[in-house]
Amino acid sequence: MAGGALLLALPAAPALAVDGQALLQERCASCHNLTGPAPTTLEGVWNRKGPDLFYAGLKYRRDWVVRWLQHPTRIRPAGMYYGKHLRTRPDGQDEVDPSTLVRHPVLSRAEAEAAADALMRLKAKSELIRPGEYKPGRISMSLGDLLFDKFKGCIACHRIEPDYGGLSGPEVYTAWARLQPDWMISYMRNPQAWDPRTFMPRRPLKERDLQNFVHYFKGLYEEMQEEGGPEDE
């Protein structure tokens, strides 16, 4: 009994801390570029399995990273490079072949927290960011739709709703929850400065257009939440 009482009185052993940097190397480095630079050849783009992460600390919101790594969803409907994931239907039209798409690994809460902390320390190309450049505001969603679709043609590659828009680029209806506003502005201003071989065109956007795009992405996300959309995408 004395021995049993002694055992019951002993404190539980603390959980071992997860080494985020080691986790990135073991679980992420095979698909993601953690050190840079971005590929500069078409072969490099073709072989890219996932988005570059060597500037993740400038690009992503930490809270979103933690949630998403525990419950990953597909952000790019046609994969990292859409040309590798298409098939031809009997009517001659192309469609995404889901059998070629790979599911992202699921991490535990502790792993996600550690990975997020390690990712937030990756801040290459920080000279491209102008801290505080985004000025909070709003845009009429009808005007935002016109800007995104009719005026700039962005909808050809990006979805603004789960089933509406292009497939070759990442969805934008979760961009506000996912991405840091200053990074969005910098990337839209000059995509090739971040990724020399990106398919995202560099358009002559005015500074107010850059601000309005981020307002629009915020509005899309808020609309999705009001309609009961997935919070953690």
Overview of this structure, please?
The chain is 41% helix and 5% strand. The chain is mainly α. It folds into 2 domains: 107 residues, Cytochrome Bc1 Complex, Chain D, domain 2 (Orthogonal Bundle), CATH 1.10.760; 100 residues, Cytochrome c-like domain (Cytochrome Bc1 Complex, Chain D, domain 2), CATH 1.10.760. A hairpin with a 5-residue loop joins strand 1 and strand 2. The longest helix has 20 residues. The chain is globular and about 50 Å long.
What attributes does this structure have?
disordered N terminus, mainly alpha, about 5% strand, 4 strands, about 230 residues, Cytochrome Bc1 Complex, Chain D, domain 2, two-stranded antiparallel sheet, 11 helices, 2 domains, about 40% helix
Order of helices and strands: HHHHHEEHHEEHHHH
Give the strand tally. Answer: 4
Strand order of the largest sheet: 1-2
Described by the principal axes of the CA atoms, the overall outline is globular
Please sum up the structure shown:
The protein has two domains: 18-124, Orthogonal Bundle (Cytochrome Bc1 Complex, Chain D, domain 2); 128-227, Cytochrome c-like domain (Cytochrome Bc1 Complex, Chain D, domain 2, Orthogonal Bundle), CATH 1.10.760.10. It has eleven helices and four strands.
